[in-house]
Amino acid sequence: MFMNFRRVHKLQCLQLLTTGLVLCVLMICWEELDHHVVSHMRSYTYRYLVNSYDFNSSFGHNQKDSEGVDNGFESYPYLINHPNKCVGRHSQSWDDVLLLLFVKSSPENFQRRQAIRDTWGNETYAWSELGASLRMVFALGVHRDDGQRSTVQRALLQEGQAYGDLIQQDFLDTFHNLTTKLILQFHWAHEYCPQAHFFMSADDDIFVHIPNLVKYLQQLLSRKSGAKDLWVGHVHRGSPPIRRKESKYYVPEDLYPWSSYPDYTAGAGYIVSADVAAKIYQATLVLNSSMYIDDVFMGICAKTMGVSPQEHVYFSGEAKAPYHPCIYSHMITSHGHAADVRSLWKAATDPSVHYHSRGFLNNLYCIAIRVMLLCRPNYESMYPCKAAFI
Ligand SMILES: *[C@@H]1O[C@H](CO)[C@@H](O)[C@H](O)[C@H]1NC(C)=O
Ligand SMILES: *[C@@H]1O[C@H](CO)[C@@H](O)[C@H](O)[C@H]1NC(C)=O
Ligand SMILES: *[C@@H]1O[C@H](CO)[C@@H](O)[C@H](O)[C@H]1NC(C)=O
Ligand SMILES: *[C@@H]1O[C@H](CO)[C@@H](O)[C@H](O)[C@H]1NC(C)=O
Question: Whose CA is nearest to atom 13 of ligand 1?
């Protein structure tokens, strides 16, 4: 009897343990499982949903007042500007701007800006080493803190004079004014640099592999069809608006009532061709800019103008790329590099990097390394597994 009882006890223990184990595994996997199920359901329904949205009538200014002038869109005056950034330097070919690079910065990020100037934002490097005419400017608002504003502003004026690369408008530099900063970029590009073949918008904590990027853009330009209708980056497809009030990305229903955003590229770094930049500019003139998540607003502008984003596997979205020469030979952007930009720039643009990907055996070796680095679960915003086989 006693033995029997113990056996039962043991069995129950085993059962309990197994259940516990299964639950643990489920809980660990749940987040991913949940995400996958949701995203599949999303992608299934989203095209139908988004395609039936009429952003023109929902986001157009003119719906409410028939005068329709200057209501949603506000233009702030420039406090620092360099109107001649894109004109009148050395030679004719230098004025043929390949890429206008807009870096979204904030007034207090002096060090990040300096690191970018010394590395991937170095126009002289792009010109002398790559034969590419690059123009790099920083987009800024004014410091959000009343107490520090005047001190920081004085420093900014000096910095702008020293480097000639700050573009600042008179709005508060806050998260909820990012769409205003987006509008600044497209309006400045329209007015002062419309001849640039490509326009890039980037965060000030990303890394851009300029040699790889320039090669890619030059290839696009040399195509017969030219570089038209291009919007490329790390694409978010059918993301749902976040309705949790405590989230940074919270968007109330009255601001955006639908259950899915149009496709958009991660704001960390994306590129558009000149014709698309012009279309986005047009869209900012007629759309209500109260959607404060700038990359979503960009998606709405693009949707209105009939432009869709394209995926490039080596734009990283919100994630940091693994450190390896086999990655450096292909990477375009990587996110989260405020501190190590200089060392990464040195390593990633070293001539020996290309040696690694040359020849059959080296190539095979690099594919194996990239499979190991990229093809594992939980690398949501990182380069996808298929990037290993390029
Ligand atoms: C939306 O508005 C823009 C600019 O006015 C126009 O070019 C475009 O054709 C419109 N799109 C639709 C779907 O009506
Ligand atoms: C930019 O690149 C050039 C050419 O490679 C180099 O001589 C110069 O020192 C660089 N400038 C900065 C600020 O790093
Ligand atoms: C955006 O900037 C404007 C102009 O400085 C300011 O009035 C407004 O409060 C800012 N909005 C947010 C959400 O910070
Ligand atoms: C823009 O949208 C916001 C939120 O939906 C709304 O409160 C505001 O009145 C709109 N502005 C215009 C000019 O339609």
Answer: 304
Residue 64 lies in a domain: no
Q: Is the pLDDT of residue 67 over 60?
A: no
Residue 78 bridge partners (DSSP): 169
In a domain, 1, yes or no: no
Q: Does the CB atom of residue 183 touch ligand 3 within 6 A?
A: no
Q: Which band of pLDDT confidence, cut at 50, 70 and 90, is reported for residue 95?
A: low
- Please give the Cα distance from 358 to 362 (Å, whole number): 6
Please say if the pLDDT value at position 329 is more than 60: yes
Compute the distance from residue 100 Cα to the ligand 1 centre, in Å.
26
Which residue of 55, 290, 293, 296 sits with most ligand 4 atoms within 8 Å of its CB, as the best mutation to test the pocket?
290
CA of 354 to the centre of ligand 3 (A): 47
Distance from the CA of 102 to the center of ligand 3, in angstroms? 21
Q: What is the structure's pLDDT at 224?
A: 77
Print the domain residue range for 354: 325-389
Where among 273, 289, 311 does a domain terminate?
311
The answer to whether residues 307 and 329 belong to one domain is no
CA distance 292 to 312: 25
Residue 89 neighbours by CB distance under 10 Å: 13
- What residue owns the CA closest to ligand 3's atom 10? 172
Measured by CA distance, the residue closest to atom 6 of ligand 2 is: 125
Q: What is the pLDDT of residue 137?
A: 98
Ligand at shortest distance from the CA of 168: 3
Compute the average pLDDT of residues 127-137.
Answer: 95
pTM of the model: 0.84
Strands 269-273 and 231-233: antiparallel
Task: Work out how many domains the chain is built from and give that number.
Answer: 2
Closest CA to 268 of 178, 148, 160, 143: 178
- Give Cα 161 to chain centroid, integer Å: 28
Least confident stretch, 80-84, 118-122, 338-342, 353-357 = 353-357
C-alpha distance from residue 201 to each of 68, 345, 348, 351 (Å): 29, 19, 21, 27
Average pLDDT over the chain, rounded to whole? Answer: 86
